[in-house]
C-alpha cells in the first residue's frame, strides 16, 4: 500500500479553496491534473462516430415506412426509432464492431469482446448519459489518486461487468461503459470506508453515496438495461478501492514530526480490508472467467437473479 502516486508529470499542489464534499482537503497530499478521463471521453465519442460511419443507415434502410432519423446527417443518420429509440446504429453494426455477445465469446473464442463492448454505445442518448456521469465521477477520482489507479479501476471494473453480464444475459448483445462507471462508484464507496478516519462529514458522505448507488441500481431493473454489467462493475470496483485507494490514517502525518508519538501509517482494519478485497477480487474474476468459457449459464445456479436486471410489473414485461 504505497503512500504516494507513481505517476509523474501531472502533479500540482492543492488550492486552499478547493472544497470537495467527499474528500478531506486538509492533508498535505498532492493533487493530480486529470487527463485520462477526458481522453476516455474523447475516445468514446470517436468510436461512436466510427460506428455510425460503418452503420450507414440510408444505404441499408429501404421502404417508405423505414425512414432513417436525421437523414440530413447522411451516412451518420440514426436507425428508425422503432428499431433503436436511443438514436444510434443497428444491433448488427454493434455486433460487428465488438459488442458483447455470449455465443461469440464462448463458442467463437472472441474473448476480446469482454473489453471492446465497453467502448461502444447503443445511441447518442446512451453515450451522453454515460460520458456526463464519467466526467462527474472520474475527474475528481483522478485528481485525488492519479491516472494509473483510476485507469486500472475503470478497465478491470468494465471487465468484471462484462463477465457477469455474459453469465446471465446470453440471448442478447450488450454495450456501454456502465460497468466501468459503476466500478468507479464502487471504488468511491470503498475508499470512503477504508479511509474513514480522514473524513470530516462521514455520515453525510456515506448516505449521499449510498443514495446515488441505490438509485442507479434501481434504474437498472428497467427493461433493456443490462444491470448485471452494473452490478459486476460495482462489485469489482468496490474490491479494487480497498486495494488501490488506501490513504494513511488520520494523524499519521503529524506523528512523523513528533518523536514522542509513533502512529502507524495504516490501521489494522485497512490491512484486513486490503487482503480480503484482494482475495475476493482474484477469486471472483477467476471463477467468473472459468464459468464463462466453460459455457455455464448463471441463471441455472441462481433462479431469482434475473430479477436483478429486469423486474416485471403491470407496466412492462421482461
Automatic annotation (TrEMBL):
Q: Does the keyword Lipid metabolism apply?
A: no
Reaction(s) this enzyme catalyzes, per UniProt = Cleaves type-1 transmembrane domains using a catalytic dyad composed of serine and histidine that are contributed by different transmembrane domains
Q: Which residues form a coiled coil?
A: none
**All residue ranges annotated as the Peptidase S54 rhomboid domain in the record:** 109-245
Q: Where in the cell is it found?
A: Membrane
Membrane topology designation = Multi-pass membrane protein
- Has keyword Repeat? no
Report the transmembrane regions from the record: 35-54, 118-139, 151-169, 175-196, 203-222, 228-247, 268-293
Where it mainly occurs, coarsely classed, is membrane
Q: What class of enzyme is it?
A: hydrolase
Q: Which Pfam families match?
A: Rhomboid (PF01694)
Listed EC numbers = 3.4.21.105
Query: What keywords were assigned to this record?
Result: Hydrolase, Membrane, Protease, Serine protease, Transmembrane, Transmembrane helix
Q: What does this protein do?
A: Serine protease involved in intramembrane proteolysis.
Question: To which protein family does this belong?
Answer: Belongs to the peptidase S54 family.
Write down what this protein is called.
Answer: RHOMBOID-like protein
Amino acid at each position: 500500500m504505497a503512500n504516494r502516486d507513481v505517476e509523474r508529470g501531472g502533479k500540482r499542489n492543492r488550492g486552499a479553496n478547493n472544497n470537495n464534499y467527499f474528500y478531506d482537503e486538509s492533508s498535505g497530499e498532492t493533487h493530480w491534473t486529470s487527463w485520462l478521463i477526458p481522453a476516455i471521453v474523447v475516445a468514446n465519442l470517436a468510436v461512436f462516430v466510427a460506428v455510425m460511419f460503418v452503420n450507414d443507415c440510408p444505404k441499408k434502410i429501404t421502404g417508405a415506412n423505414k425512414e432513417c432519423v436525421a437523414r440530413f446527417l447522411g451516412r451518420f443518420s440514426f436507425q428508425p426509432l422503432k428499431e433503436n429509440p436511443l438514436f444510434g446504429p443497428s444491433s448488427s453494426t454493434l455486433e460487428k464492431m465488438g459488442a458483447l455477445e455470449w455465443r461469440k465469446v464462448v463458442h467463437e473464442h472472441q474473448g476480446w469482446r469482454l473489453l471492446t463492448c465497453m467502448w461502444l454505445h447503443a445511441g447518442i442518448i446512451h453515450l451522453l448519459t454515460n460520458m456526463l456521469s464519467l466526467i462527474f465521477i472520474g475527474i475528481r477520482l483522478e485528481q485525488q489518486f492519479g491516472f494509473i489507479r483510476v485507469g486500472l479501476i475503470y478497465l478491470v471494473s468494465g471487465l468484471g461487468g462484462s463477465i457477469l453480464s455474459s453469465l446471465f444475459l446470453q440471448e442478447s448483445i450488450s454495450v456501454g461503459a456502465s460497468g466501468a462507471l459503476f466500478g468507479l462508484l464502487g471504488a468511491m464507496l470503498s475508499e470512503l470506508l477504508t479511509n474513514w478516519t480522514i473524513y470530516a462529514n462521514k455520515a453525510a458522505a456515506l448516505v449521499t453515496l449510498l443514495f446515488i448507488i441505490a438509485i442507479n441500481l434501481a434504474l437498472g431493473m428497467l427493461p433493456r438495461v443490462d444491470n448485471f454489467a452494473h452490478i459486476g462493475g460495482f462489485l469489482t470496483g468496490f474490491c479494487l478501492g480497498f486495494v488501490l485507494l488506501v490513504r494513511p490514517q488520520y494523524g499519521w502525518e503529524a506523528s512523523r514530526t513528533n518523536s514522542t508519538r509513533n502512529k502507524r501509517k495504516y490501521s489494522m482494519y485497512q490491512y484486513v480490508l486490503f487482503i480480503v478485497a484482494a482475495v475476493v477480487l482474484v477469486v471472483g474474476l477467476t471463477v467468473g472467467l472459468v464459468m464463462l468459457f466453460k459455457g455455464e449459464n448463471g441463471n441455472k445456479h441462481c433462479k431469482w437473479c434475473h430479477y436483478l436486471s429486469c423486474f416485471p410489473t403491470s407496466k412492462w414485461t421482461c
